[in-house]
Every structure is written in C-alpha cells, then in structure tokens.
Amino acid sequence: MKKIDIIQRQTLSDIQTCADIWLEASIMVHHFIDKSIWQGYYSSMVSQYLPSSDLYLALESNQILGFAAVTNNKVLEALFIHPIHWRQGIGKQLIDHISQIYPVLTLAVYQRNQQAVNFYQQQGFILINSKPCKHTGHTELILERV
C-alpha cells in the first residue's frame, strides 16, 4: 500500500486538479456512459460541486493523487484516484480517514460500475436503496457505512 498524506484543502489549483482527475477517471470507469456527459459537467465540477464540498486530498510529495468530496456531513459525493495510481490503497486510505471525521457515510454508485461497488462493499458499505440517476438514467445503488 502506497503511503500518502491526506489533508483538507481547497485552493483553486486543487479544485482544478481534482476536476481533471474526476474527468479522466469518470470517462474510464463509466464506459457505459457517453464521455460527452462527463465533459458537459466539467465546468460545474470546478465552479459548484467541488467548491461546495469538504475536499480531502491524497498527496504524495505535494502531488494530488486523488480526492474525496463530502457534503452535508455524511454524503460521499466523489472518491476519485488518478488512474495511474489505481490499486495502490489510496481509496481505502481516503475512506479510512474521512470515516474518522464522518461516522456515517452514504454514497451513490452506478450499478454497472462493479469494480467500485465491490470496493465500497469491501470497505463496509451496505446497500440501502437504488434509483435511476437523474442525469443519465442508469441505476445508482445507494450505499451506507455506519
């Protein structure tokens, strides 16, 4: 497992880097959704979603490798790791860190993103509901960790 530092920070540069990671990873893992959907939401990620979240950065030598974004003191809106750093334990370290701050976490994950579903279940999240995504129509699973 790669050893990283996790900090809460939100500079404009951080937000831009996180949005870049989000876009690249989203296109790769959500192959069942046209990439134009993700590209269309990019500016909203930079101007709205990330700035309104509590942003936790996974850093190595001050380089952002990934991030977690939490809203409403319990909703994990985003957990994205740059693809070149996948499968190095960074997502688990971010989950472990934010779980110490937020004892209850909920999230939505696309049902067809089986790798992410498996990851979250391994981290102790359980299925509590499902619903169609209002943006794509694909089924999202609502998971919770207590």
TrEMBL record:
Keywords: Acyltransferase, Transferase. Residues 5-146 form the N-acetyltransferase domain. The keyword Metal-binding does not apply. GO terms for molecular function: acyltransferase activity, transferring groups other than amino-acyl groups. This is GNAT family N-acetyltransferase. It comes from Zophobihabitans entericus.
